[in-house]
Design brief:
elongated; alpha+beta
């Protein structure tokens, strides 16, 4: 094209468009004009190159700034005197490949289209995989902390061949299919298809004499013991990260990490809500009526709680800083003691007589019952009126 169009015009966006909008528009246009979807269509091929060039500039903050200030002339220093080079100037090519890979499959789209020659060989240092281990612990362990020993089935670098996969004393040979490049090229001209070598799997080399211990895999199965320190205050869903305790790396690569996910068993005494605890405290009916002192269990021991006369069932008292310790080490939550009133059972005749005397003298001293009776009377009165 003799005269380049404005990049914003190419993508059909405003000059204030953000990165997300630019990427979204580019994805749509790239899918529309991709040569694989328009075989033999030279106009589509040119449009694809045009929108790709526009995206490369507008998705790069520095290039976009120069373009906004000086137009196409401002990019000569970035692209060189020859202008935009599709095989050299895609500094955001990984970003672009990620956009298109879901549509056109794996591999490098721009290697295929523009002969970039970026064959990726396997076999270099690789970081080991991260591992997840789900651990169930008792409530007491979450409250006071503990130490656990866990055993993990892992894959680690073969100690015989040190991860090479080859028999000690032997070396890998260059793959004859790809001549050590790790990729094979088919087609010609502008459109060259580059694919991972099916013989060596992209490594560029072949194992001629496999290691007898690992069978050429470079890794063996093992069981690893790990000592885990459980801090105070962990809860269900807490993740503990142990750096370097995951799968071993290959070819000198670092090990992955181990993530231990905590699951805390339910407890018969305490219920947890974030860093607070709830405890149901039964008290005798006479204590609730007359008031008095009750004992409330906490993580450190019993605490004394004074309740007023006439305390009703369900009343909640807050004991500050008597809850769970916070994982970060700063303070504790609160303990909420909820009162439940227990009615005595297996009464003696004397006790029954005393309660009967109480009943006869306190019939008008139950406001909640009186309120209920009043509401019921009103309900039935209204019912009778509607049935007339």
């Amino acid at each position: 094209m003799a005269t380049k169009r404005d990049y914003y015009e190419v993508l059909g966006i405003g000059r204030s468009a953000g990165p997300d909008e630019i990427k979204k528009v580019y994805r749509k246009l790239a899918m529309q004009f991709h040569p694989d979807r328009n075989p033999g269509n030279k106009d589509a091929e040119n449009r694809f190159k045009e929108v790709s060039e526009a995206y490369e500039v507008l998705s790069d903050a520095d290039k976009r700034k120069k373009y906004d200030q000086f137009g196409h002339d401002g990019l000569k220093s970035a692209f060189g005197p020859g202008g935009f080079d599709f095989s050299r100037d895609f500094t955001h090519s990984q970003d672009i490949e990620d956009i298109l890979s879901s549509v056109f499959g794996g591999g490098s789209v721009f290697d295929n289209l523009f002969g970039g020659g970026r064959g990726r060989q396997r076999g270099g240092p690789q970081r080991g995989a991260d591992l997840r281990f789900d651990l169930e612990i008792d409530f007491e362990e979450s409250a006071f902390g503990s130490e656990r020993e866990i055993t993990l089935p892992i894959s680690e670098e073969c100690k015989t061949c040190h991860g090479s996969g080859s028999k000690p004393g032997t070396k890998k040979e260059t793959c004859r299919q790809c001549n050590g490049h790790g990729v094979v090229v088919s087609g010609g001209g502008l459109f060259q298809m580059r694919q991972t070598c099916p013989v060596c799997g992209g490594a560029g080399k072949m194992i001629t004499e496999p290691c007898s211990t690992c069978g050429g895999q470079g890794r063996t199965k093992a069981r690893r013991r790990v000592i885990l320190k459980i801090p105070k205050g962990v809860e269900t869903g807490s993740r503990l990260r142990l750096s370097g305790k995951g799968e071993s790396g290959s070819s000198g690569g670092p090990s992955g990490d181990l993530y231990v996910v905590i699951h805390v068993k339910a407890h018969s005494l305490f219920e947890r809500a974030d860093d607070d605890l709830l405890c149901h405290v039964p008290v005798p009916i006479e204590t609730a009526a007359l008031g008095g002192e009750v004992r409330v269990p906490t993580l450190e021991g019993y605490a004394k709680l004074k309740i007023a006369a006439g305390t009703q069932p369900g009343k909640v008292f807050r004991l500050r800083n008597k809850g769970m310790p916070r994982v970060n080490g700063y303070g504790k939550g609160d303990l909420h003691a909820q009162i439940t009133v227990e009615v005595p059972s297996h009464l003696s005749s004397h006790q029954k007589k005393l309660l009967k005397e109480l009943q006869d003298t306190t019939a008008d001293n139950y406001p909640a019952i009186a309120k209920l009776n009043s509401a019921v009377d009103e309900f039935y009165e209204r019912k009778a009126q509607l049935e007339k």
